[in-house]
Write a sequence for this structure.
């Protein structure tokens, strides 16, 4: 019934029979069964077909979700071998999945680098989200009830789900919303508490023409740019649900005040010793052990570069975590023959980033590692850094100037800093100091593996987008011919009956094209939704929002010189490696592939007149 006009056959390599959209004579079947992921790698979400995801069914949807980095650290024992790692990598390469690559956004010649530094939490130490984040969540929830007067109902409201939110989202503190936007700050997904907002509701709240919303910054917004902040979002949404509930005792609390209370309680739970005590009792329960950690650090140090640690954690907690990371045992166990301090040239704890990167007035203290007492110091002012560090290399506080002196570097471009926090570790250090940066993105493995698994679905989406573009092109050509005939129909040289027939034929064709386009667009929406839900049933791809790069992806591209899934991926490359980025590509670089170019090229052939005449003849 719905046919393409014969004029389109002039470019058969790019054309397709649209009959498959309606189930007849199809040359490429797009109506396939739902694509499902089957791997059990970290951050993998098994998908239910065409579900409307709500808080009530979300946990059952994730019943087979595996813990963070489980594929790379499946055992808590340090018995995992390099041979096993190589075997896993070989299998990944054969399947086309992620195999630990370090990606480059900005050229970086490691031969010019004098020092390599690391954050600890979620960088050197990869925490198990299903156990570690629960500590902060439960501690904060208890304090909200006991110290801030929130209803006891909160304690039994639900249990923490570490998979519900992801990095790169934004908290609208004034409205109780969680937002995902693209790199242009166009809001595409909004949840109020655990309830999704419709497109109409979303557009009314975040109208892109209103400049007030173009910033999305403090004090009204908070960015979930680290895995540490995910419990904050979950607890905040629970309070939003309670506040909106009929008869709630916290109705007089504003959303923004509730978010402030959540932040205070989460911070307290990290400072009051509860988390340190639990992690110290059984670090294997909360931290992934990576046997490549010590070899990786030694490899960098043996290359002649200085290795440093800058973490916001205080020394007592840092000692617990680093001891486990380098020995696979908890502090105090017998048979330990590795002193983690020897792996670093400079260690700075309690750094208070990002203030460490901005305020040159922050005081530096030396830490006595035996007593954990602090001693005043001003850094190496009248002696060499080597002599100064011989008295002790563990410090607390300070600022970037102290660090540069301790490392004996004259420029920020001489060091590389590896971290997980976009704001505190990467953005500030890159923008303010010119440090070279590497961002650790544990979710990267899941993102790439799902892309590989969903290749066929991605191809189907590409075909549908091509069909939509061709229909738009064809409609534009028909409309152009229709307008030209309208303008010329009163000319004496024209056969008015013939012109009328051609106008009727062109009008009928435009209606047919619009019907085909509407149906192909619906098919495209369904396939695109299915594709994004393969990554996460609510928030989709970490690096995409719709077809655009997400806000998170834009920041990775702008501020991270390098990025990878875990620090020990540095074992796969030489310490003197020269990283080179891929060429940037803009739409005009792919001129021949752009829809407008195809349209202009098609117009040059000008087959519309003949096609319209043929169509009018068949109508008679």
């Amino acid at each position: 019934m719905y046919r393409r006009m014969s004029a389109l056959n002039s470019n058969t390599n790019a054309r397709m029979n649209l009959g498959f959209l309606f189930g007849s004579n199809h040359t490429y079947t797009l109506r396939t069964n739902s694509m499902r992921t089957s791997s059990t790698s970290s951050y993998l979400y098994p998908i239910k077909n065409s579900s409307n995801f709500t808080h009530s069914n979300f946990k059952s949807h994730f019943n087979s979700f595996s813990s963070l980095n489980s594929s790379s650290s499946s055992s808590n024992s340090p018995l995992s071998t390099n041979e096993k790692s190589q075997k896993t990598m070989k299998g990944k390469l054969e399947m086309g999945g992620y195999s630990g690559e370090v990606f480059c956004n900005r050229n970086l010649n490691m031969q010019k680098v004098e020092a390599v530094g690391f954050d600890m939490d979620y960088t050197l130490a990869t925490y198990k989200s299903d156990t570690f984040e629960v500590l902060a969540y439960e501690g904060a929830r208890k304090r909200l009830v006991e110290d801030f007067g929130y209803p006891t109902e909160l304690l039994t409201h639900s249990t923490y789900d570490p998979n519900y939110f992801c990095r790169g989202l934004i908290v609208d503190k004034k409205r109780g919303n969680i937002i995902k936007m693209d790199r242009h700050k166009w809001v595409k997904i909004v949840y109020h508490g655990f309830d999704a907002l419709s497109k109409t509701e979303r557009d009314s709240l975040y109208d892109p023409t209103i400049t007030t919303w173009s910033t999305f910054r403090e004090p009204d917004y908070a960015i979930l740019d680290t895995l540490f902040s995910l419990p904050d979002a979950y607890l905040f949404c629970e309070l939003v649900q309670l506040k909106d509930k009929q008869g709630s005792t916290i109705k007089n609390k504003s959303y923004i005040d509730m978010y402030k209370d959540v932040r205070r309680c989460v911070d307290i739970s990290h400072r009051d010793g509860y988390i340190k005590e639990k992690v110290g009792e059984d670090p294997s329960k909360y931290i992934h052990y990576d046997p490549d950690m010590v070899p990786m650090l030694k490899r960098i140090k043996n290359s002649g570069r200085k290795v440093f640690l800058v973490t916001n954690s205080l020394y007592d907690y840092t000692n617990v975590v680093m001891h486990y990371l380098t020995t696979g045992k908890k502090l105090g166990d017998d048979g330990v023959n590795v002193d983690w301090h020897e792996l670093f040239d400079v260690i700075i704890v309690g750094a208070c980033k990002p203030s460490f990167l901005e305020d040159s007035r922050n005081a530096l203290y030396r830490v006595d590692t035996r007593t954990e007492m602090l001693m005043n110091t001003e850094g190496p002012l009248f002696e060499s850094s080597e002599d100064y560090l011989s008295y002790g290399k563990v410090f607390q506080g300070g600022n970037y100037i102290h660090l540069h002196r301790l490392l004996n570097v004259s420029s920020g471009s001489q060091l590389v800093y590896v971290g997980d926090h976009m704001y505190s570790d990467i953005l500030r250090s890159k923008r303010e100091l010119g440090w070279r940066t590497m961002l650790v993105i544990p979710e990267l493995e899941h993102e790439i593996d799902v892309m590989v698994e969903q290749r066929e679905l991605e191809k189907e989406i590409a075909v549908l987008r091509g069909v939509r573009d061709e229909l738009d092109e064809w409609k534009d050509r028909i409309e152009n011919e229709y307008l030209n005939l309208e303008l010329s129909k009163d000319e004496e040289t024209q056969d008015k009956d013939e012109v009328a027939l051609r106008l009727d034929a062109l009008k009928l064709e435009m209606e047919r094209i619009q019907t085909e386009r509407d149906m192909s667009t619906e098919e495209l929406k369904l396939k695109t939704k299915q594709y994004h839900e393969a990554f996460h049933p609510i928030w989709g791809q970490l690096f995409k929002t719709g077809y655009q790069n997400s806000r998170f992806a834009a920041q990775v591209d702008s501020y991270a010189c390098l990025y990878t899934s875990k620090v020990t991926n540095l074992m796969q490359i030489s310490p003197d490696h020269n990283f080179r980025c891929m060429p940037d590509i803009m739409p005009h670089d792919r001129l021949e592939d752009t829809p407008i170019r195809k349209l202009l090229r098609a117009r040059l052939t000008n087959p519309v007149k003949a096609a319209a005449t043929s169509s009018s003849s068949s109508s008679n």
